[in-house]
C-alpha cells in the first residue's frame, strides 16, 4: 500500500528521502491509531485514510497535505492528540489535521443553512487554509463512493449535504471534476432508479456524442488557426447530474435534451474570446433564444 502512495507523490525540492520519511511516519501513525476500527462495510478504517491520501496524491497535492490526509481522522476518532501530531510532524501538519477536525463539527441541519450564501465564508473561515478544504473534499468524495453500507437515513443526509454544500463549494473554488463527481454520487444516492436509467441512456449515447464533439471541434480549431487566435479547445460530455437538472427544470425527457455536450474555448484575452465566439457563429447557426454570454 505504502509503495503505491509513495510512487504518486512528488518530493519537495527533490528531497526524496525526507518526503518518504514524512509519509511513512504518517502512514504508520494512522494505521496504528485506527487499529481495530472498522467501517460499516467491515473493512479496516485505515483504508479510508489511505484512500483519502491517494486522492490527494492524484490531485498533485504537496507531501505535507498528503500526510495530513493520512492523519485527518486521528484527533476526532482515536486517542491521538494534536500535540502528538505537532511533536512528530510539525505545526503545519498539526494545523491541517486540526482544521479538518473543526470542519467535521459543522453541521448543516436545515435547507436554509445548506444554501446560505455565507456557507463558503463559514467553511473557509473555520479552515483558514485552503488545503483543509481540499482534504475535506477527498474525505467526502471517498465517503460518497463507499456510502452504501450506511443506514438509508444517514445516506440521504450525507448526500443532501454533499449536493447542497460541498459540490457548490468545489464549483466556487474551480474544482470542476470534483464537483461533477460529488453531484453524480449525491444523485445516485438520492434518486438511485432515476440515476441508473439516466446513466444507461448517457452511456449508450456516449460514443456518438464523443464523435460529434470531434466533428464539431475540427473546423473551429482550423478557423482559429487561420485568424492566429491562440486558444485551447476542450470538449466533454456533460455530467449525469447536469443533464438531470436540465430535465427537471425544463420538465422534459432525456430525448428532448439537446445540449448533452459542452465545448470550452479558452483564449488569452477577452477580445480574442469574442473573436472565437464570432468564428463559432460563422460555422454554426446559434439558437438565439438559447444563447447565453458566458464571457
Automatic annotation (TrEMBL):
SUPFAM superfamilies: HD-domain/PDEase-like (SSF109604), Nucleotidyltransferase (SSF81301)
GO terms of biological process kind: guanosine tetraphosphate metabolic process
GO cellular component, one term: plasma membrane
Residue ranges constituting the HD domain according to the UniProt record: 45-144
Pfam short name (any one): HD_4
InterPro entries according to UniProt: HD/PDEase_dom, HD_domain, NT_sf, RelA_SpoT
CDD domains reported in the protein's UniProt record: HDc, NT_Rel-Spo_like
Family (UniProt): Belongs to the RelA/SpoT family.
Record-given protein name: HD domain-containing protein
Organism of derivation: marine sediment metagenome
Amino acid at each position: 500500500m505504502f509503495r503505491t502512495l509513495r510512487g504518486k507523490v512528488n518530493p519537495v525540492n527533490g528531497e526524496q528521502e525526507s518526503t518518504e520519511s514524512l509519509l511513512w511516519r504518517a502512514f504508520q501513525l494512522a494505521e496504528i491509531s485506527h487499529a481495530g476500527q472498522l467501517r460499516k462495510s467491515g473493512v479496516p478504517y485505515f483504508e479510508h485514510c489511505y484512500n483519502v491520501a491517494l486522492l490527494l496524491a492524484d490531485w498533485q497535492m504537496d507531501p505535507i497535505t498528503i500526510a495530513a490526509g493520512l492523519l485527518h481522522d486521528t484527533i476526532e476518532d482515536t486517542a491521538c492528540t494534536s500535540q502528538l501530531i505537532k511533536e512528530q510532524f510539525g505545526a503545519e501538519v498539526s494545523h491541517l489535521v486540526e482544521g479538518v477536525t473543526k470542519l467535521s463539527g459543522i453541521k448543516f441541519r436545515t435547507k436554509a443553512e445548506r444554501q446560505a450564501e455565507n456557507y463558503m465564508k463559514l467553511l473557509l473561515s473555520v479552515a483558514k487554509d485552503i488545503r483543509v478544504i481540499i482534504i475535506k473534499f477527498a474525505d467526502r468524495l471517498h465517503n460518497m463512493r463507499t456510502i452504501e453500507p450506511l443506514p438509508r437515513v444517514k445516506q440521504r443526509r450525507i448526500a443532501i449535504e454533499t449536493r447542497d454544500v460541498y459540490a457548490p463549494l468545489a464549483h466556487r473554488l474551480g474544482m470542476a471534476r470534483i464537483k461533477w463527481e460529488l453531484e453524480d454520487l449525491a444523485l445516485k444516492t438520492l434518486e438511485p432508479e432515476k440515476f441508473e436509467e439516466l446513466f444507461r441512456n448517457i452511456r449508450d449515447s456516449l460514443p456518438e456524442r464523443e464523435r460529434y464533439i470531434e466533428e464539431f471541434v475540427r473546423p473551429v480549431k482550423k478557423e482559429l488557426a487561420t485568424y492566429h487566435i491562440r486558444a485551447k479547445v476542450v470538449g466533454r460530455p456533460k455530467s449525469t447530474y447536469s443533464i438531470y437538472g436540465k430535465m427537471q427544470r425544463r420538465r422534459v425527457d432525456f430525448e428532448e435534451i439537446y445540449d448533452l455536450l459542452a465545448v470550452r474555448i479558452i483564449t488569452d484575452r477577452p477580445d480574442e474570446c469574442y473573436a472565437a465566439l464570432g468564428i463559432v457563429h460563422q460555422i454554426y447557426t446559434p439558437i438565439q433564444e438559447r444563447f447565453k454570454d458566458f464571457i
